[in-house]
Input
Amino acid sequence: MRPTTPLAERLRPATLDEVIGQQHLLGPGKPLRVAFESGQPHSMILWGPPGVGKTTLARLMAQGFSAEFIALSAVLSGVKDIREAVERAQILQATSGRPTILFVDEVHRFNKSQQDAFLPHVESGLFTFIGATTENPSFEVNSALLSRAAVYVLKSLGDDDLALLVDRALALDNTATIDDEAKAMLVASADGDGRKLLNNTEIVLRAAAQAKQAAIDVELLKQTLGDALRRFDKGGDAFYDQISALHKSVRGSNPDAALYWLVRMLDGGADPRYLSRRLIRMASEDIGLADPRALRLTLDAAETYERLGSPEGELALAEATVYLACAAKSNAVYNAYNQVRAFIAKDKSRPVPEHLRNAPTKLMKQLGYGKLYRYAHDEPDAYAAGETYLPEGIGEPGWYRPTPRGLEGKIGEKLAYLRRLDAEARGKVEK
Output
């Protein structure tokens, strides 16, 4: 390749064995390795953060399956480009007889009608569809297209993977070496993004050549990359350590510490939208019904940020953070939810009790559906004392155990009162 070709392009793997990372998909017996070895391509969605090899894998698939490769970018393409890609695939099918792989980068940027345009051609076998996305395909890819494609989750590159990438880059360039401390700093600056790492490495190599410096050290990195060394996106160890510190500070009811970690992460370049999502999670996980206002206030803060952006919207996130730290705490709902999930995962599929079933038809009524159901509003205190609502055989598991803190203390008192009514009603029935 020409010397002006970006380092990331010059180092793009030419074979599957040259791919760094993603061993959960590419290792022996793993899904993508099996797909390559089978020689039978299938439509798929590659979901993962930037710079982890989605485009590279698509190109290698085309090469491995001896397929024609057509690439579209959803950022730059429209309906006209999709139509032209389909026509090109039809010509290739008629002339070469080779299979065609249609690769769509950032597929989540296409709207529903644009995504739907691929469906008939995927079904007819005109081409194998491979979409790449950094967003959750469950929310961003049409269900019809999603049902026709396997979803593979790619992970951020680990430090060892990135260090190997630095070694390959320096070996290819062959103009400078790097000491261990500088190498670790360079790896940290990429935060799991291989393309970002190679771009940073290329910048540093040019700086070293200009300074006639044969060894790259920390000082050169600081001079060359500056604030980029402090920045991070989701995926790095520093990021997860700091989000953990923020979460634990909120849980520990320390507003100063919570605010410190929030601002520290914003200053380091964390995505405020990600932080807002984590704050929403904290409102549900650690505060819950002890203070239901916390969730609404945090949602409002997230919406405020969406309207105002940075830096104005960050103050709303700070307000939510302080409120969450000061609010009464309860993880009762969180614990109950996890217990029920674990129970259902292991339990059999139990039928809905007949008195709880809907009976919209005459046959269903004849079968007794809903016959013994007691309408709570017609009962004293609007409560059908002694009624059962769980499938037969489960009993009263008591998964949700309210804490005595905040509003949940009142909830606990009410539930205790209702349980006493249940016990009295069932005692009368037994007598």
